[in-house]
Structures are given as C-alpha cells and as structure tokens.
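Review form for a predicted model. The reviewer records the input and the model, then writes brief findings.
Reviewer: anonymous (R2)
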Amino acid sequence: MLMKAKDNKGLNLVAKGGGMDRLGEIKVSDGVIGTIAATAAVKVKGVVGMSAGIVDGVVKLLTGTQLIKGIKVEMGEEEVAIDISVIVEYGAKISDVALDIQKEVKFAVEQMTDLSVVEVNVFVEGVEIIRQKEEKKVR
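Model under review:
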C-alpha cells in the first residue's frame, strides 16, 4: 500500500505495510511534475513551445531546460492541478490543441507519479507563424 503526504517541497510517497515500511520515502517535487507536464505538452501536434508569459506585448518562447517556467503546479495530498502556458502554431485549431495538451499532460503525470490530476488549465499566450523554406529545384 502506498500512502501519500505532502511536504513543503512536493509530494512524499511513503510505502506502508507488507514489510515495505522500512524502505523510506520517495519524494516527488513540484519541479519534477512540471518537467513531466512540459515534456508532454510540447509533444502535442500544434504546440510550438512553452511560454514564459507576455512582457510588453511580446511572448517569450521557452526552450530546453527553461520549459518548466511555463508551468505552475499546485499539489494537494493526493492530487495535482497544473497551469500550462503555450504558444501554438498558426493554423492549428486552438481548442483541439488545448484539449490534446490536457489529455497528454494528465496521462503522463498520472502514469509517472500515481497522483490524480484534477485539472490542467491551458493558457494560449501566442501564435507563431512557421515559415517553411522554399526548395528550389536545380536542373
């Protein structure tokens, strides 16, 4: 049996019963939840990347290790709520992309942490026009 408790740095998963209670604790931080959520979100078709927010009317696109800055995690004892700020590709149907983000993030976090994801709020903060390079045929 796995008991869950929260401390100020994230989630404590404490094994109880069946002779396992001597093994110790497993702690999952808010940052780990954020990394899982960000990684799942950027894999969704139509997502260009995570957003750090809007400053002076300009949206900053996050890449690499900065992805987590586009995520806000609120953890309870056995559940988690996640806010995600993204930039989508121009032409993508925003409602479909947002729904796919919610599904993928919920699935990834629940599968990896055994937490219940109670909500995934998606904030679309920008649209990026992706220009494809025109290939010239050389003959």
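Findings: The chain is about 25% helix and 45% strand.
Further findings: Residues 14-19, 133-137 have pLDDT under 50 and may be disordered.
Recommendation: see findings above.
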